[in-house]
Amino acid sequence: MHGLFTSLDAPSFNALLRRCLFIGLTSVAGSALAAAEIQFNTDILDLNDRSNIDLSQFSRSGFILPGTYSMAVEINAQTLPEQKVAFHPPDDDPKGSEACLSPELAAQLGLKDEKAAALDWWRGGECLNISSLPGMEVTGDLSTSTLYISVPQAYLQYTAANWDPPARWDEGVPGLLLDYNLTAQSIHDRDGSSRNDISGNGSLGANLGPWRLRADWQGRADDETVNRQRSMEWSRIYAYRALPALQARLTLGEDYLYSDLFDSFRFTGASLNSDDSQLPPNLRGYAPEVVGVAKTNARVIISQQGRVLYSALVAAGPFRIQDLNDAVSGSLDVRIEEQDGSVQTFKVESASVPYLTRPGSVRYKLAAGRPSRLHNGSAGSVFGTGEFSWGISNGWSLYGGGITDNHYRALSMGIGRDLLAFGAVSFDVTRARTELRDETLSGNSYRLSYSKTFAEFDSQVTFAGYRFSEKDFLSMSEYLDASISPGPVGGSKSLYSATFNKQFRDAGLSIYLNYSNQSYWDRPDSERWNLSLARYFDVGSVKNMSLSLNLFRNQERDQSNSNGVYVSLSLPLGRSGTLTTGASRAQNKNSYSARFSDRIDERNNYQLAASDNSVSGYLSHVGDSADVDVSASVEKGNHRSFSLSARGGGTLTSSGGAFHRSGSMGGTRLMLDTGDVPDVPVRGHGSPTRTNAFGKAVISDLSSYLRTAASVDLENLPANVEATRSVTQLTLTEGAIGYRTLDVIAGEKAMAVLRLPDGSAPPFGATVKNTRQQETGIVNDAGSVYLSGIQPGDRMTVSWGGSERCGIRLPAALPADGLTSTLDLLCHAVSTDNAQSAPASTHMPDDMEKKSS
């Protein structure tokens, strides 16, 4: 502190002291009663001219001059977007001022229906009568340009820590987007042959109001020594929107049937589904997980009926993919392409958990259209389907549904029971009748599902469950396959599926088990299981060592088997590095490896690996415009390979655009605008990013219908940038392009002395603003002011007494060190026709700004 004072000259020190006294006065004013007039003892101020003081804006605490203001609205600590807020004198207090909560703003409070229906209004229905909600408080604060609203929780709809009622959901702004995921590989074998390929998928989209138009694409180009293949296709073109009043999602175009009762297939038509993602987090469903082991740096591709859902490079060793959409259902195809040219394939059954619904609620799914195939067009006649789940009571749910076309009919009924401490269970029966060529088949299918989370034991079991189908039972997708492909029509016989997680925290042990078995009436069975054990422990001074075991078996119905075991020991090295040694056995081959992984910084990490016959490297970079992964490997006497992966996107709105990272194709995102100020670090979901040359940054992969916060990274701001409003939060609907501005001032800092044309100085307490109406300084004694965010040649205005009084222009060349040099600036008078002696405000109402301009 002593160094700070000694570095300031006397004028700077006096200015700093007066500024502190000025801030102290505002604090004293803020602690007084709102209705009371505050008298200031100006004798305590060390001022040369005590007659030239403007403290009127602080004379009545909480008083805001009647008018219309641009203010952020904060409801129970949640900030809504900036909007126009009017202040009017109450009918019983002509000299007072009260915030006018318009019907549009009152709708965002998220009141229960019975409370909203009982509201009172004044000024002819323009403003909410706050007294109609006892306990509600509304306070305006011009120093932060915020309207604070406190509403008793008993009046509000259901809210959670990161979830808001539909009244506060944001549909975003109109815009265009293009997301991509590209992977290129080059493999050269020792015999001179080579294989180069590039694959990708992504989404092209447009948003208009609540509607989202999406066109998903995927393609692949293989260039082998003796064979070349090219493919590029639109895998799905569709439009959708949320219907918050129904807690549902309407989809038009090409889609996949998402059902809790029937299997999934592709169709062209329309669907209306209760949307679990619009429910509070504790009422949502589960997303499928995919686990496996990569022998080398590999590309993992997850698809369903030919449509790519997920594609990424993974480093050698075990992997676990958990970020699939929870709307995905049915059988998933997993393909692991190793850098040595080998390929692993298996299927994952994403079975559903028990179909339970809250008491008194009804969930439903409706769809109609024509089945279609990705490559062959339509594949059947027009169909219709519907299903429901009704919460009968606190413990029981009744559910059922049907699906039909000209030659196929199926009806399902079931019941679910919440067993409380023992989990949840459901049982259903489906009967199908199929007219196929010259025969009619009828059969039943039975399903038992169970799920339980043992929070007190850090474990979860999902037994989703057991399904048995009679020989003459065909699902809709099996019927569609049989109708266009001659041959046996026998379908599935039984499906077992179970997942178990358990944490033994005291012992430092975790267990993960996944098992599925699919049997058929006329084809070989397929079986897959994966067991992972991990044990964390300390040895002497070495902390957080781990020993893990992975056992896996994949047996597909085409008799392709993939069995193996992987054992590894990891120990920390340095500040963030980890050395892992491992041994594995797969396809009757043993291999040994050692890997070292480390984090270079917040954006970069790498892995170096060596085995008994190969070496490899893997680098992952998190960029502002894209995520980039690079891997390379050399196998002794066999091949060498190189892979490159990039994931990103571009978003364009009427306010500007930006390139950015993107993982979820066509998903929800937020554009942040810092007002043309470039290189501002911002944080949101995931790693930080920076605004581009136009002051725009996009944060992608946001969770829909969950509250999202974004902010300026104050610790890493450039030296010439200040943030006056650095945090924003909002809840976006699915696929929305959110837009928010962050109040950032960029420019140099300097001490200045303001003079009026007659030689006098603006009064103590006058405010200085730039052309964007950002406050850049407060006038001290004798016209001295500390200015921030100034640019050469800029114009600024000085206000006191409730209006703009004069304007200054900064010189074209600013001093090299504005804190040791003082600028002498002449403040040219502006029109004073509307100058008033009424109590002033540091922020003028919008209608007064129009008059003074």
From TrEMBL:
Coiled coil: none annotated. SUPFAM superfamilies: FimD N-terminal domain-like (SSF141729). PROSITE patterns: FIMBRIAL_USHER. It is found in: Cell outer membrane. The keyword Nucleotide-binding does not apply. Residues 844-853 have a biased composition (Basic and acidic residues). Residues 39-183 form the PapC N-terminal domain. Residues 834-853 are annotated as: Disordered. Residues 754-809 form the PapC-like C-terminal domain. InterPro entries: Fimb_usher (IPR000015), Fimbrial_membr_usher_CS (IPR018030), FimD_plug_dom (IPR042186), PapC-like_C (IPR025949), PapC-like_C_sf (IPR043142), PapC_N (IPR025885), PapC_N_sf (IPR037224). It is a multi-pass membrane protein. Keywords: Cell outer membrane, Fimbrium biogenesis, Membrane, Signal, Transmembrane, Transmembrane beta strand, Transport. This is Outer membrane usher protein FimD/PapC.
